[in-house]
Amino acid sequence: MSGAYIVVLLEVKEARHRYETRLVEVDSGRKEEYEFKLTQALADMRAQNEEQIQIYKDNMESTYKAKLEDLHHLSEMNGASAIMAREELRESALRIESLSAQLTGLQKEMRGSRDRIAELEAALAQERDTSRKLLGDKDREMAEIQAKMQQQLNDYEQLLDVKLALDMEINAYRKLLEGEEERLKLSPSPSSHVTVSRASSSSRSVRTTQGKRKRIDVEEQEASSSVSIAHSASATGPICIDEIDTDGKFVCLLNNGDEDQAMVGYEMVKNVGNVASTYKFTPKYVLKAGHKVTIWVSDAGVSSKPPSDLVWKNQSSWGSREDVSMVLMNPQGEEVAKRITKYKIAEEDDQGDEDDYGIEAIEKDLQQQVGS
């Protein structure tokens, strides 16, 4: 405010100096007029300057008051901020103390968990060692059992071979006896079938321990009052044809192996007389280990229920008392299983039961001798 006042004074002095210079130059007669005008001009200038000074003063006061209010408001805000900062600092300190306590607890739990893990790992290692020992013992027991079973199977096969040889010898003696009776014109003894099926049928699942499957031949005979039914079956692998229905409505397959068998590419070929038909397995069908599957003809009235029941579409019953042959072919076209059912009209009469009993008694004695 003092600087502006000094400027105004300088302007006034300069104006006065101009006026005085002009007064010297003008006529002395008009000196009073000029002095009056000068006085009036000075008064106007003084009034204007005072007005401007008052305006400057008012502006300075209002600016000072505004800045003072701003500073007061800012001070209040800073005070509130300081209070909030102190509160946050206190809460942070409390949170740090809580987190430190939690960290201490978690560290204790972690040490306990580590100790527990070490104990469990030691127990697991001990259990593994125990299990390994038990498995070794079981493997040795299994090997011993398999060796005993193999020895028993070998003994059984030897006894079976001896029995078959004896059966053949008995048949030869029977034929000689029948020839002598015919030559001597005695009443002939009716021939009887030697039922080898009971012994040989149990050899369907016999396998060697080296993993190579033996070819299995099974012969069975069924007898009725007028018709004799002969069954023969063979298999080179785990899959065998277990049964052919005598009424011609189904055929049954059995998986004797220890593993599931995918039947993709396998075909079942049926021959009745000179008529042959083929059943093809679906690509996704699998015959489970130790399970059977029955393939029904389309007119048997049975719906398809895989994996236990399948339907041979477009194949009707081949009837009863018709010789039938079933062959299972692998994808390479090789025969892996076969079963034949033959029907024969029986010609024996009801006489000669005593002779048959005598032959069976001879067989029993021979078997006892072989067993001893």
UniProtKB/TrEMBL annotation:
<dbReference type="GO" id="GO:0005882">
    <property type="term" value="C:intermediate filament"/>
</dbReference>
<comment type="similarity">
    <text>Belongs to the intermediate filament family.</text>
</comment>
<keyword id="KW-0539">Nucleus</keyword>
<keyword id="KW-0488">Methylation</keyword>
<feature type="region of interest" description="Disordered">
    <location>
        <begin position="183"/>
        <end position="223"/>
    </location>
</feature>
<dbReference type="Pfam" id="PF00038">
    <property type="entry name" value="Filament"/>
</dbReference>
<keyword id="KW-0449">Lipoprotein</keyword>
<dbReference type="GO" id="GO:0006998">
    <property type="term" value="P:nuclear envelope organization"/>
</dbReference>
<keyword id="KW-0597">Phosphoprotein</keyword>
<dbReference type="GO" id="GO:0031507">
    <property type="term" value="P:heterochromatin formation"/>
</dbReference>
<dbReference type="InterPro" id="IPR001322">
    <property type="entry name" value="Lamin_tail_dom"/>
</dbReference>
<keyword id="KW-0403">Intermediate filament</keyword>
<feature type="compositionally biased region" description="Low complexity">
    <location>
        <begin position="189"/>
        <end position="209"/>
    </location>
</feature>
<keyword id="KW-0636">Prenylation</keyword>
<dbReference type="GO" id="GO:0005652">
    <property type="term" value="C:nuclear lamina"/>
</dbReference>
<protein>
    <submittedName>
        <fullName>Lamin B1</fullName>
    </submittedName>
</protein>
<feature type="coiled-coil region">
    <location>
        <begin position="89"/>
        <end position="162"/>
    </location>
</feature>
<keyword id="KW-0175">Coiled coil</keyword>
<dbReference type="InterPro" id="IPR039008">
    <property type="entry name" value="IF_rod_dom"/>
</dbReference>
<feature type="domain" description="IF rod">
    <location>
        <begin position="1"/>
        <end position="184"/>
    </location>
</feature>
<dbReference type="GO" id="GO:0007097">
    <property type="term" value="P:nuclear migration"/>
</dbReference>
<dbReference type="GO" id="GO:0005200">
    <property type="term" value="F:structural constituent of cytoskeleton"/>
</dbReference>
<feature type="domain" description="LTD">
    <location>
        <begin position="227"/>
        <end position="343"/>
    </location>
</feature>
<dbReference type="Pfam" id="PF00932">
    <property type="entry name" value="LTD"/>
</dbReference>
<dbReference type="GO" id="GO:0090435">
    <property type="term" value="P:protein localization to nuclear envelope"/>
</dbReference>
<dbReference type="GO" id="GO:0051664">
    <property type="term" value="P:nuclear pore localization"/>
</dbReference>
<dbReference type="InterPro" id="IPR018039">
    <property type="entry name" value="IF_conserved"/>
</dbReference>
<dbReference type="InterPro" id="IPR036415">
    <property type="entry name" value="Lamin_tail_dom_sf"/>
</dbReference>
